[in-house]
Amino acid sequence: PWTIHFDGEPIHDTPPLALWVTASFLRIFGTSEYAARIAFVLFSIGALYAVFLAGAVRLDDDEAACTWITRGRACGLLSAIICASSPLFGKFAPHITIHIPFAFFTVLSLLGWLYLPDKRLGNVLWGIGIAGGLLSGGTAALLVIPASLLTLIFDRRRRAIWKSVPFLMVTLAAACVGGIWIVSTALRAPGGFGAGLIALSPGKGGASFAHLLGALKTIWLANLPWSIPAACAIIRMAVAGFKKDRGQGISAIDGVLLVFLVVLFVRLVLAKPEGIEIFLPLLPIGAVLSAREIGRWMYARRNDLPSAAAGPAFTPADAEGHVCEERLWTLNQALISLFFLLMLLLV
Question: What distances in angstroms separate CA 274 from CA 77, 82, 198, 269, 277, one per listed residue?
Fold first, then answer.
C-alpha cells in the first residue's frame, strides 16, 4: 500500500490516497470503468458542497460591509454552481487524477480556517484538509499554513487562532499523519525527498516570469467566463489598497481568498506543470471569489433603497416598493441560478 507499482516497477512520485480509494472501490464493485471513476466523482461532489459552505461563511464585518452576504446562503449556492460549471472542473471531475481529491482537501482546509475561531468544527476540517492534502497532493498541502499566516494582514483579530493550543496541536498532528508517506518514501526512493512530490516540487532552474504569465493566461482562458468576475474582484481589491472597504463590500474573507489563491498559484507554477489539471485546487477558491464579486455587482443596483431608519421620510409606499424590490431580487437570483445550472448541463 505504501509503494505504488506500475508494470511491476515501483513508483515513488505519486501520492497514494487517490489510488487507495480507487483500489477499494474496485474491490467492492469489481473491475470496471464505473468503479474506477466513482470515487473521483464523489470527491468532486464533496468539493462542491465544501465550496457551498465556504461561500456561505460570514465574518462579523460582512454584515456592515454588504448585506447580500447575509441573505441566506445565496452566495454559497452561487459559489458551488460556478465551481461545478467551470469548464476545467467539469472536464476533470469524472476522471482518475490525484488533483480532484487534492482540490477537495484544499477547500476543506480553507473552510476550516474560515470557521475558526468561532466554530470548533473548524479545527477538525483544518486538520483533515492538511492530512488528506498531503496524502493526495504531496507537500503542496502544507501551503495552507503559510497562507493562513499571511491572511492575518487583512484580519488581525484572527491572530488569536495561532495562539490556540488545540489549533496548534491539530496542525502538528495533521502534518505528522499526512507526512508519514512522504518520509517513508524518501527513505526508500532513489530521489530522497524529491520523490513523492509529483508536480509539487520546484522544477529545475525555477520558473521564469514568462512561464508564470503563461500559466496565468492558460488557467484564465480555461475557466471563462467565471475567470472574469474573479479578475474583477482582484482588481477591486487592488484599487481599494488590499484593505477592507465597506463601501465596495470588501471584507476579510476576500483577503483570505486572495492570499490562498496567490500562494497556491505561485507554488504550483514553480513546479512547471505539464498538465493544466494541477491547477484544479485553485478553482474552488476562485469560485467563491467570483460569486462574491457577482454579489457585489447585484448589490450595487440596490444599495440606494430607503430604510426605516430614515425616519418620517420612509412612507408606507416606500415600504411596499422595498418589498416588491426584494421579491424581484429573489426572482433574479433564482433565474440566474437556473441559467448557471443550464450551463452546467451543457458543459
Answer: 32, 25, 11, 10, 9
pLDDT value, residue 198: 45
What's the pTM?
Answer: 0.81
- Please check whether residue 256 is in contact with residue 151, taking contact to mean a CB–CB distance below 8 angstroms: yes
* pLDDT, greater one: 106 or 4: 106
